[in-house]
Sequence to fold (263 residues):
Amino acid sequence: MTALLITPGCKRKELEAQLAEVQKKLTDTETELSKEKQDNERLRGENQSYQERIAELEEEVRQLEKQIEDLAAKAGTTAKELAELRAEKAKREKELLVYKNLFDQLKALVDAGTIQVGFRKGRMVVQLSNAILFDSGKSKLRPEGEEAIASLAPALSSVDREFLVSGHTDNIPIKTARFPSNWELSTARAVSVVKSLIDAGYPSNKVGAAGYGENDPVGDNSTEEGREQNRRIEIILMPNLGEIPGMKEMLQGQGKRIGGRTQ
Fold:
């Protein structure tokens, strides 16, 4: 019988290799956790509650009012400077009124837990969970989802602005004949919500649909709770570009330059 002898040197090399592997896994885990922490901090920075944004806008209006008062009392202030500040203050007040009016219309649904209202990337967002809207892997609205969308339509119609319905998924892949990826699923769900809004009376020329798949998360996809947060529909109040200072003039100037080249 031949005995297998393991020398101390071989055992040491084996242990060192195992230790190196463990250290590599630990480093990889720390790197992954650091990335997740950065992503979560970024998401927290992007998201803002309704109350926080309203308070921020109210403070901006107060600051503009103070600047107007200070400039009005200051010798040498031009009428143009005052007019520009007053125009900016009026724009902020109008924006604030739109947000408050829309929230007042949506408050009953917020209190019932049907929707959430907040600000994300500087835009007011009405968020609905897929749990009440769709069955897993499906784009057909459930009856309770139809009811939720129908109850939203009058509130959205009360605001003379356009909305974008955006569909979002978690990062678990889907591959079916109808939905080769989460892009198709999220887009189909957004379209279903748009059609439901239109059926409930919302003007078709004031709403659009977009699918983001898993590429715009609000939660941590490594947890079930985070994935559930990411499976959602957002109805986004679109900005009125005509109210952005200088936008109209810039576009008109651009149009003239383009026209000059093409004629």
